[in-house]
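In this supplementary section we document a worked example of the pipeline. Step one takes a protein sequence of length 415 as its only input; no multiple sequence alignment statistics are reported here. Step two produces a three-dimensional model, which step three serialises into structure tokens for compact storage. The input and output of this example are shown verbatim.
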Amino acid sequence: MDTNQELVGKRNELEATNKKIKKIRDECKLGDGSFDLSRTKELDGDSPSRNNSMSTLLTKSHELGVEVDKLADLVKGMMEFDEGNGEPEAKGMQHPEPKGANRKSIGEQFIASKEFQACAGDGGQKTAKFFIPDVNLKTLMTTSAGYASQAIRTGETEMYRAEALNLWNAIPKRQTSQSSYIYMEETTRTQAAAEKAEAAAYAESAFAFTERTVPVEDVGHWLPITRKQLLDVPQIQGIVDSELTLGLQELLEYEAINGSGTTPVLQGMLEKTGINTLSAGGIAPLDAIYQAITKVQKNGLAEPNLVFVNGEDWEPIQLMKTTGGQYIWGHPADIGPMRVWGRKLYSTFRVAQGTGGVGDFSRMLYAERMGITIEITDSHASYFISNYYAIRAWTMGCFVWKRPTAFCSITGLNS
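The serialised model returned by step three reads:
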């Protein structure tokens, strides 16, 4: 392997390592700025094992960075070395003069000319013409006809924009091995406990339970890719893996909010029958959010732990000021956690402007039958004879809203 190829390989390995570290950091970062390594699937084992694995990744990133710097310096030094005379190139090209010649260069003649001296001095002349004898123009040396410059692409890749998976990471997860998630919901609860007179009968209470079934849905997508692209560029393997995985998680977060629940679409909170609703028309946004909290507390006898609103609806709230011009939500220099009425708040553009939600997300879950799976095959159409691959990423699961009244949708927040 030549030095340039080794440099590109090390840069690709460094980028893949740093990307994995960033993914772990984003998944494990808590609202108070600390980290919980148990929140990521990138690390295995108990807490000490995860700490050691993370430490190893950071050490590897540092060591790869040092190797990349050394190789880059080596490549640069070799490019600047003049193989003709065994010495580093001087500034400009070397044109040896015949022995015994005592001829000034064009630059030396120009500097020594009276025209240049007049232009550079205090005589006021600002334009000079200089005639150079015995200079015959041959072919103009350009990058197309001359020596092409060499440029080595860095190992950096700027990925397409993607919104953070805040809500998805906050949703409780549970495994299921069946094609549907079946559970019991208490739908009748008549508590008749009361005092009684002597010799009188106790009051009779009534409880009834209803079986609920939520179908597990299949979610996935695929990507065609040539074998040459997959094998010749190691970095593309990490990009394909992360992008396909991220695409699934982005869809799951979107459907956790907006999914219609009509098979094969997953059931989202805003479309779930039985949740509380609140129209915020004519109500201050902060007041509307608190009224939604109250509805959940009253009708669902639950304590909301999360609020989500559209980013453009949150902006005027975040920028609210006192009459004296002081920001109510804190000084701009202090980032701080996003909270409203003591609850964690997510500003997201996966919900329509003017719409928001409040809920006790311990009263729902994502039931996962199959974790995210990535598969690759050439058994598709003419892919085998054309050296194509089909890469597929898929998962199976469903959202279970166990207590609909523990949630409330808000509309008209921007009216």
